Amino acid sequence: MRTKIAQIVDSAGSIPRDILAKYQIKEVAFHILLGEQQYQENITITGEELYERMIKQPQLIPKTAVPGVSDWISAFMEKYEEGYRNFIVTTIAEPLSASVQSANMAAGQFIQDHPGVNIHILSSNTCACGQAALEIKIAQLIEQGQLSVEQLLRQVSEYLPRIISLFSVNELTYMHAGGRIGGATAFLGKLINIKPVCEFVNGIVHPIKPVRCRSKALTTMVDEAVKRVKHTEDKIICVQHALCQQDADFLIAQLREKLNYTKPIYLSSVGAVVGAHSGPGAIGIGIV
């Protein structure tokens, strides 16, 4: 008999909305603080709406807050009432956020009140497009129904160290405000118009190459992705952008051509919680 497995994610992956619906993935929202206003990601504010606000009001630096314990418990209850007793939960990387701790606290409470429920919580080691690629892969494995929960978890644990998460930002102001880089780096980058290409490794931002124009940043990202991908037949590829559709289209076209890749490349906006720290113009490639 096929095991029913519920998939629950935090909103940092910003999975395309049609994919959430197709695989019945439950998304738990981060909270966004913008001035005196508080929003829930993808519920009361979208990434696009946030970036437009950031452009119009550059003095407002967004702040973020993790989903609360009650947010997670509500998601668990929704899936429990649908008949699920096995949950796989993925979150943004632990070094980037306390989302995984909040989920673990909620899981402990929920299991205590609902014996027979198994909740498995995994930090994705990344965020945004890398997290989305992982979560889409998990959704596909669940839909195939060939693996037990234990087998699926072992498979996912093998993916985690191999997730490719490349990104570039248009300016360094927001990464500095979010504590991702130092003030001197942000100042120097702005002074000489650096467009850094970076990656997430175990939830930590690592610079790959500083470049001085946007087009070079995009081609560097593609070259890095191509260099790291040995075989494409079983890969999940995601591209995300923050109000830079043309750049995203360029990445997709280049990835298709250079990898000879004909399967879907999943496109979505960089979510508000990640975009609050990367700003308008951020763009990324995620591959599992």
Task: Give a description of the structure.
- With 288 residues, this protein is an alpha/beta fold.
- The protein folds into 2 domains: 5-160, 3-Layer(aba) Sandwich (Rossmann fold), CATH 3.40.50.10170; 162-287, Hypothetical Protein Tm841, Chain: A,domain 3 (2-Layer Sandwich).
- The chain is 43% helix and 23% strand.
- It has 11 helices and 13 strands.
- The protein has helices at 17-22, 47-56, 69-81, 99-113, 128-144, 149-159, 173-177, 183-191, 214-228, 245-259, 272-278, and strands spanning 5-10, 26-28, 31-34, 37-40, 63-65, 86-91, 118-123, 164-168, 195-201, 204-211, 237-241, 265-269, 283-287.
- It has a 6-stranded mixed beta sheet, sandwiched between helices. The chain has a 4-stranded parallel beta sheet with strand order 2-1-6-7, sandwiched between helices. Strands 4-3-5 form a 3-stranded antiparallel beta sheet, with helices on one face.
- β9 (195-201) and β10 form a beta hairpin.
- α2 packs parallel to α11, α3 packs across α4 (99-113) and α9 packs parallel to α10 (245-259).
- The model is unreliable at 178-192 (pLDDT under 50).
